């Protein structure tokens, strides 16, 4: 699941505290440089750094890879240790950092406005409704986009993959989270931006 790779030259850590952190509560998994994997919980985050709790004990400066629910993969290095976890930098391209900033803004607004979890993003009206759902075995199935938001989509499709099944909706990774009369609801692996959804809009 996890792979270390050399970061592109344009990927760089931001100076510590360049951004204001947002209070969040998002689970995930991380891997230390030793390749040991642990569940973790993100409690604060900015596009430049992350505060998380974890039973794994890394060393200062150690390289970390984490997969965070709704945000996807992040990489960085341990900046400091805390009583129940650590703070890590976020190494990313400017484009990735802008996307993180947009995602965190949505999450912050959701908490401030008291929006329920399953309606945390406004529904968008898709202009292109023809889509394709790809399953783990590589099989592809034509479907029709019914509903779309930054965090997921509802598609009209004859088949019903089991809840939890990883899928690709066109190029977007996600998983099936609900069945309904006409098809299935898909939650994206990370919160999208309008730009990443432009093929539908």
The first-to-last residue Cα distance is 32 Å
User: Could you describe the largest sheet, including whether it forms a barrel?
Assistant: 6 strands, antiparallel, barrel
Gyration radius (Cα, Å) is: 18 Å
Low-confidence stretches: 1-10, 112-120
Q: Would you count the extended β strands for me?
A: 14
CATH superfamily caption of the largest domain = predicted glycosyltransferase like domains
Q: Tell me the β content.
A: 35-45%
Q: Spatial order of the strands in the main sheet?
A: 2-3-4-7-6-5
SSE string, helices as H and strands as E: EEEEEEEEHEEEEEE
Give the C-level CATH assignment of the largest domain. Mainly Beta
Give an overview in words:
By secondary structure, the protein is mainly beta. It folds into 2 domains: 12-113, Thrombin, subunit H (Beta Barrel), CATH 2.40.10; 121-188, Thrombin, subunit H, CATH 2.40.10. Helices cover 10% and strands 44% of the residues. It has 1 helix and 14 strands, in the order E-E-E-E-E-E-E-E-H-E-E-E-E-E-E. The protein has one helix at 94-113; strands spanning 12-13, 22-31, 37-45, 49-54, 63-68, 72-81, 85-89, 91-92, 130-134, 140-148, 152-156, 166-169, 172-180, 183-188. The strands form 3 sheets. Strands 2-3-4-7-6-5 form a 6-stranded antiparallel β-barrel. A hairpin with a 3-residue loop joins strand 3 and strand 4 (49-54). The chain is elongated and about 50 Å long. The model is unreliable at 1-10 and 112-120 (pLDDT under 50).
Short description:
The protein is mainly β. 10% of the residues lie in helices and 44% in strands.
